Amino acid sequence: MFAFAFDTLEEPQIISLIEDVKNLENNKTNLNYRKLRLINVENPTQLKLEIEKSIANFDNQGSIYLLNQNNSIITGTFISNIKISKSKKSNLSLSRYVWHQPKGYYKAWKMKMNNQINAKNIWKSFQRNELEGWLVFALNNMNTEPIKENLIIEINGDHFNNLDEFFCTLGEEVNGVAGYFGRNIPALYDCLRGDFGVESIKKLTWKNHQKSKKLFKSKFNEILQTFEDFNIEISLQ
Fold first, then answer.
1. Where are the beta strands (DSSP E) in 1-116?
2. How far is CA 142 from CA 70, 169, 177, 234, in A?
3. d(C-alpha 158, C-alpha 120), whole Å
4. Could you give the 3-state DSSP secondary structure of residue 196?
């Protein structure tokens, strides 16, 4: 279930519940002009009226929120300069500028709410273009307690075939089921600085590293250098 609320300085005030929203995700850009399809809006007349009022007051910024079973807000997508581009019965189309989450993000959250993320490697059921969404979900869902020190971790080049899969694997090796520890090399550097569930990593063993080296090309050495910058012992096997 989704909901619409206007952007305020206080807690979001939900205007209407929505059964589903199409076109929320995009891997190409974080922000662009887009049309969102709202399916089975609970009170479409009221929602249209409130949006029209907000346009008249030049205050038409809002968010589409994903709700849990108790109708509590889990996460959301911000929309600016909202316009109604189409209306048919209980379905509405909104257009303007959308701050996108990547593909797979809402899929992961829905699985989380349905208790379907209960073991490592659930991300392997995602399409390749959905893995960035999984990683952003993992970042937003992360639990940084307890803080781990002097970790000894092991990864295997046979278990991932691209950089997104590498970071999915690394995140779970470091922080457990649906764990996060970076989604690109700059983010990995940030994680190694602390505040992401880890105080320090003592040793990294990378089995079948030659496969990863061939796949990642120059990125492979960049990853190694990032670990070395934090005095982590690296064993390439």
1. 2-6, 14-22, 31-41, 62-67, 73-88, 91-99
2. 21, 15, 10, 26
3. 16
4. coil
Query: Token pair for residue 190?
Result: 């940030």
- CA angle 139/76/170 to nearest 5° reads 15
Question: For residues 153 and 174, what is the distance between their CA atoms, to the nearest angstrom?
Answer: 7
CB atoms within 10 A of CB 170: 22
Say which amino acid occupies 147. I
Is the bond preceding residue 102 a cis peptide, omega within 30 degrees?
A: no
Contact call for residues 105 and 123 (beta carbons, < 8 A): no
Q: What would the pLDDT profile of 170-220 be if each residue is shown by its tens digit?
A: 999 999 999 999 999 999 999 999 888 899 999 999 999 999 999 999 999
- Kindly give, in sequence order, each residue whose CB lies less than 8 Å from that of residue 230, ignoring residues fewer than 6 positions away: 192, 200, 201
Are 42 and 106 in contact by the 8 Å Cβ rule? The answer is no
Element (H, E) at 234: strand 233-236
List 206's β-bridge partners, or say none: 155, 236
- The confidence band for 59, taking pLDDT boundaries of 50, 70 and 90, is confident
Q: Rounded CA gap, 82 and 63, in Å?
A: 10
Task: Give the single-character DSSP code of 153.
Answer: E
Number of H helices, E strands in the chain: 7, 9
Q: How many C-beta neighbours within 10 Å does residue 114 have?
A: 9
pTM: 0.92
* Residues β-bridged to residue 233: 203
Give me Rg for the CA atoms of the chain: 21
